[in-house]
Design a protein that fits this description.
Layout lengths: L2 H18 L20 E3 L1 H9 L3 H11 L8 E6 L5 E5 L1 H14 L13 E5 L11 H19 L3 E8 L4 H12 L12 H16 L5 H15 L3 H24 L5 E4 H6 L2 H11 L4 E2 L9 E3 L8 E4 L7 H12 L8 E7 L5 E6 L15 E5 L5 H15 L5 E5 L4 E4 H6 L9 E2 L11 H19 L5 H21 L7 E3 L1 H4 L7 H18 L7 H5 L4 H11 L1 H10 L3 H21 L8 H24 L9
Parallel strand pairs: 4-5, 4-12, 5-6, 6-11, 12-13, 14-16
Antiparallel strand pairs: 1-3, 2-3, 7-8, 8-9, 10-11, 14-15
Amino acid sequence: MSFREFKEHVKKCVEIAIGEAEYPMIDFEPIEPPRPEFGDLSVNVAFIIANKLGLNPLEVAEIIGDKLRIPEDSLIEDFEVHKLGYINFKVRYPYLAYRSILDAISKEDYGSLNIGKGKKVCIEHTSVNPNKALHIGHVRNLVIGDSIYRILKFTGYDVQVLNYVDDSGLQIADIVTGFKYAGFSLEPPEGMKFDHYCGDEVYVKVNELYSKRPELIIKQKEVLRAIEEGKSEIAIFAKELTKKILKEQLKTCWRIGAVYDCLNFESHIIEARLWDLLFNKIKDKGIVQFVKEGKLSGCWVIKMEGEKDEKVLVRSDGTLTYIAKDIPYAAWKIGLIEDPFQYDVFVRQPNGKDLWSTVSGKGREDHPTFGNSDLAITVIDVRQSRLQKIISYVLSLLEGGLGKKYLHLGYEVVSLSKKTADELGIMVKDKEFIHMSGRKGIYINADDILDALHKKAYEETKKRNPNESEEWLNNIAEKIALSALRFDLIKQDLDKMIIFDLNESLNLEGETGPYVQYAHARAASIIQKAGVIPKITLDSASSLNDPVELELIKMVSKFDLYVEDAVKNLSPKTIARYAYQLATNFNAFYEKKPVLQEKDEMKREARIALVQAFKNVVKNAFSLLGIETPDRI
């Protein structure tokens, strides 16, 4: 049994009572009251019914209360009608504790739900231009997308992860120009990753050189043209360069814990002529219009309801705008056009899973099926919201009742705190934080952030474990570093800008990943010292009656409710805050109640079982965020 079942019992009993009182049936959900003295759940149906019928809320609540009958096997212990008109319910804690702790101990997938029922979802995230390394802003995209993938998979969805590779844009032309015409060596300085070199040195400095050497701008345009045509020596060089950078980017992604199913190259999307496959469909449905006069004469445009200006899809010279390239790709994701791509394995990932990619020419016939999803989620920052809104609008008109959906999941950007920027060598003068710009060279690469976090975590871990091996220390330091980074980028609302601070993210006090990891390690230590297999009975569960024990039990029993909320709102933040609150409840329990020193044998066994339940649940919660929970830190 879980807190969910308690809610269901309350709702069913109240619905039966409403029917017997011959009041109109209404939709309602039991809610948790603001103060513990009001019980564990409360319903406000009397107010809604009274408002509809012009009655007194307290009288309605009392009549419903008179009709309420609590079944013997219910999780409801008791109820009362409050003088303000609420009906408050108390949970039968021994039963809730017994079943929740037992399930949390015995079920590896405790908290999982079959919400998806095999529904196919594709998530596109990361999608960093292959001319540079990932920076801290890209990592927020990655951890949001990867966490949603994990949450959806945990709840019964068939999920595929896509990574879009823009290998035909201006940014690729810039670095090709740098290598071919500006004298940059193809060999990076010793000890420097190739993606760092391309982004930090070649890309930034070539953009600085354009104002000093105008002939490079001409070369850049020639390179761009060659890349778009796709068959020249320059185009082949650009493809190989892109793959080399991409493989370095993927090393960073894997380090952070993400894996992918398919890489979709923009050059292959252009080559497959997806736009041609879609254009007639949107013309036939009147979604686009041809402009015959005015400043947009000769263009194909779309005008959304409620918006004044048209958006150009095809220019008067026949070239496609950025949005026109994205619409057919999005349509492919949800199966509105047939799959025209060929596929081959790009690389084997560290977890042993093949990473496929689109390819030119003939691919492998044994490839998985990509695209044609019931739901497509694109993770991209809020600066692309308008374009994503247009894509969603067009696809909704094309979809025609098939039940297919396209969703843009937007998020705000990441900035660095002044203290962190100073530590990493970026001068911010009198500013409290700094925004990043790749073209200006104002950013911090993800690898550098992770290395700095690792270094700090290593130093603290060594202080606590001076006799451990270097291998162990580095392994734990890396897990703490990843926890600090991922948790800090997930715990905030998506529409809030994050100001990332190295030291705050590593804090063992407060709302951080390491704080939760430390609570898990503390629980693991107790279990290891106990030296017994934790077990729980209804009798021993009844002994867990202190408020700190009851709060911890209640949080353990609510895990699936938080998982469901995270799915409904596509919000990994929900799981992060749950894990933090669970750890906080455990630490309060640990500080107040002895476990191994408890003299009452039955109570000691029950507390050991509760510690094991917490350990398992917080591990499951953190796994949904892509964070490991070592037994010692």
